[in-house]
């Protein structure tokens, strides 16, 4: 029987916390995880861009999935990102995720090789057909150079477990194109923090968020207020949030968002090489943005019951 996920809501792409000696910091990770759950998020995504997937070993990914599944204890789905160069390795990662108790997968096109239309579709189908887990396609041509086009999605309709898309094309009108062509067949989750309110208003079902790692309550509040039709209240928070959300669309988003997590008391600054921690003018500039946000942080309306 095909599994399913409720793809509506806020899905943090959580960072992977490290210690000073470059081990996974499960204590700090658990603290952040608890903050996400307390704020009312609707799922947890592991091993994405923010999770520093490219520098994690398969063993570390397995440890993260196992730990998160245990701590979340069924409250929300746990989703593992798959970003591999070989189809066979992607299939293996899907199999491992299923065995470890993950609820679903987020799936990028092939890494490193720029596959064409036919190759991209076959890659997605091969992984989808190898697992019963629900899948969200990650469509990010800006960073990963392959666009998953509407014609590709038309061929992926036959895979029942391909249920959603992380929409990161940075073209807001793509939400409407998807809905016009496919109706409700694919759930659409905004994957770019700076476009979240716009895409949610255009009918996106969810938000794969980045700054939620440091500001979980504000992120969930915006989502729930929008869906409850309280647009003015959501807009006030969103306008305050935008300078912080812009940290999500820089190549150093990992370092920037981890610095924000430290500022809000739910993270560590350590990153894994080749990334390096921020220093000098750059660090001061990003801290200035974060501290300005903290100094003007809004009082949130009651949103948990919306």
From TrEMBL:
GO molecular function: 4-hydroxy-tetrahydrodipicolinate synthase activity
Cited InterPro entries: Aldolase_TIM, DapA-like
SUPFAM superfamilies with a match to the protein in the record: Aldolase
Record: residues binding pyruvate: 208
Pfam entry (one): DHDPS
Assigned keywords, A-Z: Lyase
Domain of life: Bacteria
Active site per the UniProt annotation: 138 (proton donor/acceptor), 166 (schiff-base intermediate with substrate)
Keyword Lyase annotated: yes
Keyword Lyase appears in the UniProt entry: yes
Family per similarity comment: Belongs to the DapA family.
Protein name as annotated: Dihydrodipicolinate synthase family protein
């Amino acid at each position: 029987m095909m599994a399913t996920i409720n793809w509506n809501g806020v899905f943090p792409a959580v960072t992977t916390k490290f210690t000073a000696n470059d081990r996974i910091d499960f204590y700090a990770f658990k603290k952040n995880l608890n903050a996400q759950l307390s704020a009312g998020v609707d799922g947890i995504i592991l091993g994405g861009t923010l999770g520093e997937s490219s520098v994690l070993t398969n063993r570390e990914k397995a440890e993260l999935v196992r730990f998160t599944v245990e701590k979340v204890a069924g409250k929300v789905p746990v989703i593992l990102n798959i970003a591999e160069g070989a189809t066979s390795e992607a299939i293996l990662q899907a199999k491992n995720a299923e065995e470890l108790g993950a609820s679903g997968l987020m799936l990028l096109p092939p890494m490193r090789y720029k596959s064409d239309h036919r190759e991209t579709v076959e890659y997605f189908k091969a992984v989808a057909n190898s697992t019963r887990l629900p899948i969200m396609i990650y469509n990010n041509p800006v960073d990963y150079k392959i666009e998953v086009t509407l014609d590709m999605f038309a061929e992926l309709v036959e895979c029942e477990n391909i249920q959603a898309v992380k929409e990161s094309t940075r073209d807001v009108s793509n939400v409407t194109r998807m809905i016009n062509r496919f109706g409700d067949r694919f759930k659409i989750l905004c994957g770019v923090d700076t476009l979240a309110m716009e895409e949610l208003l255009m009918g996106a079902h969810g938000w794969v968020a980045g700054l939620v790692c440091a500001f979980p309550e504000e992120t969930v509040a915006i989502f729930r207020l929008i869906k409850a039709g309280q647009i003015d209240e959501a807009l006030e928070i969103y306008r305050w949030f935008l300078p912080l959300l812009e940290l999500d669309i820089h190549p150093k988003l990992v370092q920037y968002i981890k610095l924000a997590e430290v500022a809000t008391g739910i993270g560590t600054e350590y990153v894994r090489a080749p990334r390096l921690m921020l220093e000098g003018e750059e660090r001061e500039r990003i801290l200035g943005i974060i501290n300005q946000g903290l100094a003007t942080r809004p009082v949130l309306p009651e949103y948990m019951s919306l």
